[in-house]
Amino acid sequence: MRWDRFLRVVVLLIGAWLGWELGRTFTGIRSFDELRSTFGTSAQVIIPSILGGGLVGFLIAPWVTVRPARALRSSLRGVPTIQLLAGTGGLAVGLMIAALLAYPLSLLPNPFGTILPFAGAILFGYLAVTVMLVRQKEIFSFFRIGRGDERDGERDGAAGEFGLGSKPAHSLMLLDTSVIIDGRIADVAETGFLWGTLAVPRFVLNELQYIADSSDVLRRNRGRRGLEMLDRLQHNEAVEILFLDQDPSDAKQVDDKLISLGMELNAAVVTNDYNLNRVARLQGVTVLNINELANAVKSVVLPGEEMEIRVIQEGKEINQGVGYLEDGTMVVVENGRRHLNDLVLVQVTKVLQTNAGRLIFAAPEVEQRPRVGQR
User: In this structure, which topology does domain 299-368 adopt according to CATH?
Assistant: First the structure.
């Protein structure tokens, strides 16, 4: 028998029992013996009452059992684990306090002795759950004071020994949607340059899934690539990655939630988003930008150096040509239009550092050499 059918039968029996109690109240019958003695007159009230109660229970069973259970289950999936633990602990504490007060309250004269113990259980349970949910950070940190001070002391002592100061490094790195889709985070993690634990909040994972289910082909491919990158990070033994259920209630947008979570956990945010980068730093959150890392590790060239470059397209100015180094750095070749699609030896004339990256200006080497007969 399926679970929902079993619940229907249970609610049907409860409804029939309530119908019996209701009919018994109207007829004044206290037991089955009295029912047998006055069956002719009482049956006209009790039997319809029992059948009506059972029918009502059968009909309303899904609305009082299955559907509320499904709604509760779906809502609990979106609640962070830490809030579930806090609410459960608060409810247990509240019920313990109510149980201690139940006996003294039951000694009060009626109706207070009957009502107040039940009302106290509801009141103290609600108050304890509310206090735990509102002040969960302070309460949990209170129970970690001893261990936290001990670890902080060890870390500060080691840092002071090597002259590094007392500020601890971020051990948790929150991954943004953009950096996961980009994919380079997996390559950087494999090199071992990421010293901390990579963390993916549940709301970032939900956004990735939403992008992967998009009707637009490009967005769908980007979302699927992001999920593939996460799978690649999970299968990398050198990388520690975990998924967080925390969902800050003071923010609605994913970027705002990342910043709030970074401030709450004292974690760094790994991103490629320029706007998120600026906003997070304004609020004191450490940001690791993969684009900035890529620009920092590009090969360094100085004016006067020579290199071979293939001119692949025209530049914005007249007679300019454009080529790229292996790391993606753009090289603008003066008078390079006539060398289009050719591999030419150029000499660096100027190097500019912009927000978009490093930009190199060069000129063909043959134009730098003096012609025969010139001094």
Answer: OB fold (Dihydrolipoamide Acetyltransferase, E2P) (2.40.50)
